[in-house]
Amino acid sequence: MVLRLEKVTKRFGSFTAVDGLSLTIPEKEMFGFLGANGAGKTTTFRMILGLLDASDGTITWDGKPINYSTSNLIGYLPEERGLYPKLKVRDQIVYLARLRGMTKQEALRELDLWLNRFKVPEYADKKVEELSKGNQQKIQFIAAVIHKPKLLILDEPFSGLDPVNVEQLKAAVIDLKEAGTTIVFASHRMEHVEEMCEHICIMHKGRPVVHGALKEIKRSFGKKNLVIHADFDTAFLKDYPGVTKAKQTAEGIQLQIEGEPVAEGILKEVVARGFARKFVLEEPSLNDIFIEKVGDSYE
User: Fold this and answer.
1) What is this structure's pTM?
2) In CA terms, which of 72, 254, 260, 271 is 20 to 30 Å from 127?
């Protein structure tokens, strides 16, 4: 059940929010959408879900269009929270689950499992407005996954959460993926995407500027990061041939270099000057790639 977008465009009057986006999202994988605010991520999600019609192009899942007949197979966690503040958690989740075709008994059983997993069984009888923002987010997440969707779309799922809640939710997302759910999620937190996704798409002004398997993207970027901690002044390395960026740190220097041969030359220079406590060559981070491709427009 592959999700396929072909030359998808969305215009609002004279403004083009998404411009000719073609993507294939593999089944049972986690796919990361990255981009600054206004890059077109949420608009793309709304088109995938059929909440917005594309101006041009086609979106298919398992070769068929997505519409009301597929809604029980899809889960969506919107960036804007959409729960009824005055309703009790149990009533709300049962209502939403029944819209997805579940019985009340099935919904209550799944809700119990999820509330226990998140260590908050007592929330079933609380009104949503009585919960903290982080706990409201957990309930919103349960609403998106209670019916065991085959395709799960998460829009900024970890925004506004403290580190403990982020870890809880991340573990739940990874478990769903391992159970066979296809997961697409948007975030502007590079480290979450880097840690969890095999394929990514970086969007900028409605267009994909980088798209593919994360490992391949890093490999083809070419540049590497070099971290050196030394007891002597490393500032001279800023001007070393093949160094494209340099940043002094309290313990030494972080360099972006054009490739491994540059690192070999730098190692000889460093060893000749004294003792280096750390000399580590690393793959480029997603952040490096993002800044290179999207530039200063990322805030």
Assistant:
1) 0.83
2) 72
